[in-house]
Amino acid sequence: MISFLPRRLLHALATLFGITLLIFALFHWVGGNPAIRMVGKNATVEEIARVSRQMGFDRPFWTQYLDYLGDLVRFDFGRSWETRQRVSEMILDGLGPSLSLAIPAFLLGTVVALTVALTAALYRDRWPDRTLVMLAIAGMSVSMLAFIIAAQYLFAFRAGWFPISGWEPGLRGVPFLALPVGIWIAASLGSAVRFYRAVFIEEMRKEYVLTARAKGLAWPRILTRHVLPNAMIPVLTHVVMELPMLFTGSLLLENFFGIPGLGNMSINAINASDLPVIKAMTFIGAVLYLGANILGDVLYAVVDPRVRVS
């Protein structure tokens, strides 16, 4: 483990270097001169040249890229072209609202999905299993947008049980977050249940489960004490790869419910062609995915002693 982590981190740094080069090239080279997007389509050649000199866009590509790397090390993503606010401050301001939505939805969704999948595996090929699988497939067939529109109309507008939109910090924000959290869980439950169910059924066919049944152990005890721990590697793979989504939350949920998080900020930046914000979110998303992969490798060795990280 001690020798594994430095090698894994070096590999991640090399990958991150390639990602930053690709991001910078796409936004500054392939996409054309950013000064044109800053000043607008009706700008004169003199105005474009002036902005290019002020922003340093007329310098050589590698010089601009090295400056970009230096800014990333200092967590300096520049200023938003739309709001003129520092992008790092915008990210810190939006982090709380995004996590207040994503963390409860992620934790509750994982627990519910594992519970439903274990229930389906316990009654496999019988009516509870068929019913749960049918509902899971139906949930996978409905888009997030349909869930949002239907839930807002039925539970917020018609029934008046929840606010249609808005956000408040602390406990005051619970009424605003209850409906989007429920939508997040409902929209993500189908695919997670089907994946976990397949993993559990595959594990239940192994010889140690047959031995436990032969000894007289009840199925609920076998599932919770034996099948679930032995199926943790694929479960962790699925869970860990969802962790980067906690950073941005759900883009549609934040936008439709007026939650001032990072997902909402990203959509506004795309609509306004706000390249500093888009670049920052792309870079941070790549860092989180690399971190999630490393975390997953480490957790494999923690939860399963048969795994040796080498």
Please explain how this structure is put together.
The protein has 310 residues and is mainly α. It has a single domain (87-303), classed as MetI-like (MetI-like fold, Orthogonal Bundle), CATH 1.10.3720. It has 15 helices and no strands. The chain has helices at residues 4-30, 34-39, 45-55, 61-73, 87-122, 127-141, 144-158, 174-204, 207-214, 219-230, 232-240, 245-248, 251-256, 262-271, 275-303. Helix 5 (87-122) packs across helix 8, helix 6 crosses helix 8 (174-204) and helix 7 crosses helix 8 (174-204). The protein starts with a helix and ends in a 7-residue tail after the last helix. The model has no long low-confidence stretch (mean pLDDT 81).
Task: Please specify the SSE layout and strand pairing.
Elements: H1 4-30, H2 34-39, H3 45-55, H4 61-73, H5 87-122, H6 127-141, H7 144-158, H8 174-204, H9 207-214, H10 219-230, H11 232-240, H12 245-248, H13 251-256, H14 262-271, H15 275-303
